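Submission sheet (multi-component)
Chains listed below:
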Amino acid sequence: MKEKVKVLYIDDETLNRRIFEFNFRDYFDIRFAEDGIDGLDKLKEFSDVTHIISDYRMPKMSGLEFINEAKSLYPDKLFYLLSGFDITAEIREAIDNKTISKYFQKPYNREDIKSTILS
Amino acid sequence: MRQSIFSKKKILKLYPKGDEITQRRACFIYYLVIVGLIGTLIALLSTLYQSYILPDIDYQLPILICIGLIHAVFWTSLFCLYKKRLKLTGNIIFYGGSSILWGIIFLGATIPSLSRLNTFFYMLTALTMLPLIIQNKNKVFYFWIINILMLVLLFAKITLLEYSNIKADLLFDTFFDAFLSLSFASVAVYAVFDINDLAVKSAFKEVRKREEIAIELESHKENLEKLVEQQTQNLKSAYLDLKNTNSMLSEQNEIINSKNKELEETLKNLKQAQTKLVQTYKMASLGVLTAGIAHEINNPLNYIKGAYVGLNDYYSNNNLKNEDITFLLESIKVGLDKTKNIVDGLNQFSRTNESFDEMCNIHNIIDNCLTILSNQYKYKVDISKAYKATDFKILGNNGRLHQVFNNILRNAIQAIDESGIINISTINEDGFIVINIEDNGQGISKKNLELITDPFFTTKDPGEGTGLGLSISYSIVQEHNGFLTFDSELQKGTTVTLKFPNSN
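Outcome: structure written.
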């Protein structure tokens, strides 16, 4: 069996993490982090992760801040933002300069995420 | 001055401006001079007569009495006649008496037997002259000297007649009497002269006074003229000043007026800006609010949707799906989709940071929207398009314009219950592209027509619409400097007119 794509999902809400696991465990090999700082640690720990999906609104560090920092450390990895907010100028800018590969809106469409990550 | 007194005409000439009294006084002087001369002449004649023509005493007496009476009557009447005008004191008895005495003097002087009495009478006559003389207070002293001289002459005559050896003959006596008569007459004339001299003087004084007054008046007049001239000059300069001030004021007034207009304009602009600002602020705060709400709803919605997806997987993978479970899962899905639509509607408000410099093709936008909406109308509405506008591109935000047409077309479709027509036409007009979207649906009541662009106003059933579609559309059209108007009649349909300025 082909090895699954290794994904790091960062969300401060346990419920979101667990549902994400339910929805995608058949397709991705998922690691979790509770916030941006944890995310950076996990990235160090699991260097084989290729795709990172982060929530936008989180304590300590916003998703965008995390991605900006992580992207500078791991420019080859792909980062995705997931948020209940509509797209903002800040997010658009991040998309335009390729820091963020794609922006997903909550409630997410599983097929959309699946096809994006697996493509 | 004295010489001029002798001519009545001269007098009258002299006092042409004098009043009646002044003229009469002058005339009276003239008469008195004549009278004095006549008196003197009569005295001389009577003396000559008694001396040579009528030596006989028997005839002499009545004639002398007559002469004396004429004298008396003449003087009395003269005094009385001009008493008031000459401002003389004394009454008719006084003047009559003195005149009679004078007559008697003439009489007495010519009767030798009364020679001594004669002297006494002379003295009396001199005294009767006194009041006349005293009245002329100016020359009192002079008249006293004349009087005294006369008395001295009288005493000299008496002395000569009575105590000297010389028997004065009638001729000598007559000459002496004539001389005295003359003296009296001259004194009388002089006295009257003087009175009238005073009158003349006063007349002259009056004239002088008048002249002075006239001169004074003249100078006053000159002063007045100067004053008037000066005042006129002052008035002129004041008038000029006023004129200047006036023109200055009117200039200032004009400036004020124009400033006022500017201010009015500014105020108007400010009010418009304020209205816009309030609207913007409302929308902005609405944007913040809706963005917050959207996020708060989207997050739990994420659990539900995830859970729904998980459940669906679970039932499918384990072949547990039956009719009931399918219905329940489908119900969750419908609920999710509706909620998502509403939240998406709310989210449209928070989109504020997008550019307005895209070239937007209105015809394409309408077509895109119709495509997106096709499954909503395909079985009930005929779309008729009449794209007559040749210039159908505007500068703006493509996404937002899509939202506008999407909202309006969706409303038009929803207004039609079972079947109907939507006419879409475009036309170029005065630098604008005008889009008409006309449906023959249920229409909007007049009351609601005013409210349809208010946020959260909706006539749709709860859950069917947020009441934000047209409010957002209105804002977006305004952002594109366009106009959005509605015309509607219940049961007949609604026409939505959009106007956007052309890009070039």
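Remark: Residues 1-8, 112-117, 136-140 of chain B have pLDDT under 50 and may be disordered.
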